[in-house]
Design goal:
Length: 234
Amino acid sequence: MENDNTIVECIFDIFFESSSVAENFFSIISKVDNYDNITKLPLSQLPEAIRKNDPNLKNQPLYEITSNNNTDYKITLGDNVIGIAINNNYTSWTDSLFPQIKILFQEVLKSGKIKEIKRMGLRYVNFLENENIFETGKIQVQINDNKSTDKKLFLRIEDSVDSIKYNKVITNNTAYRNSDTIGSIIDIVTSNELTITDITNTDSIFKLIDQLHEINENKFKEVISDEYISRYRI
């Protein structure tokens, strides 16, 4: 069966404590494939004191950074957050996103500007065009004797595996952003929210990041049918 890439969004980010501000990371990030095309986001216009003291703003990005050398990715940066997202040409975790995560965060972590990591998160959003996941997948929703799979359904599941939290949101009969095509969306976030103080132990950190992906992938496979597991990749 032909492989279909249903991934429409994929981002990894960390929340951290630092005595530096976002602008002090520019020179570090630019070492990675010349990420030096910097775009200010609206939040950057707010005073630093307001952003840092508002828990809803503290971990939000202030800048988006791209590279002419590597147009498949973009980096998001704030005073207490750094993330990397894939824009195009996702092939697999081991071939595309994970190597880029390692390249970026090797530079960031060895800079000494991060005191501790408060959270690491990995988000995958899959859009299955022209498919009703509540009919073709492994999830069954039923009220009395009525399955009502033709209606628009919204299912949210929160739990944890070992110390990894996951948040899984599944919707059907919906469009992705401005698309005219109707389908199903599977949105899964896996996160480690235990504070990491040993920033120098990058092997341990990357192993944990790989675990975030493994659990994310397993939670995706729990939703789709066995028939489609070989077709859809994450």
